[in-house]
Amino acid sequence: MLGAAGVLLIQATLIAYFASTLEAGPDNNYVGGGDGKWILASLAMIAFVPLMIWSAFALAIKRLHDLDLPWQLAILLVFPPICYVTFVYLAMRPSKQVTNRHGPPPFPE
Question: I need a labelling partner for 7 at 20 to 30 A (CA). Which of 26, 61, 88, 100 fits?
């Protein structure tokens, strides 16, 4: 859960920085600022998006292993309406307190 919160914090920071570099043009369309910060923000988003996607899938797969569920269920994170329900399910369901094929329980009682 802390890993997911960290990923969300990085995403929010990048999006906020990206949004702060935009300026309203003469026709009220948002365009990049004249100082080129938007180029840096765009490159940061391009660089970090694959990393954030990979980390989201890695965290979901580890959580599915804690629940002794197949890792293929992580594909549910691709579909926007389902991904929110999947995230809440993975966050709220307690881990199984038995050793499974992926190892011992993460936080034994």
Answer: 100
How far apart are alpha carbons 50 and 34 in whole angstroms?
A: 28
Distance of CA 54 to the CA centre of its chain: 8
**pLDDT tens, 18-73?**
777 666 555 555 555 556 666 777 787 788 888 878 888 888 888 888 888 888 88
Q: Coil, strand or helix: which one is 29?
A: coil
Residues 5 and 106: their CA atoms lie apart, in Å, by 18
76 pLDDT higher than 80: yes
| pTM, to two decimals | 0.61
The beta-strand segments (E) located in 1-109 are 22-24, 30-32
Residue pointed to by tokens 């991904």:
83
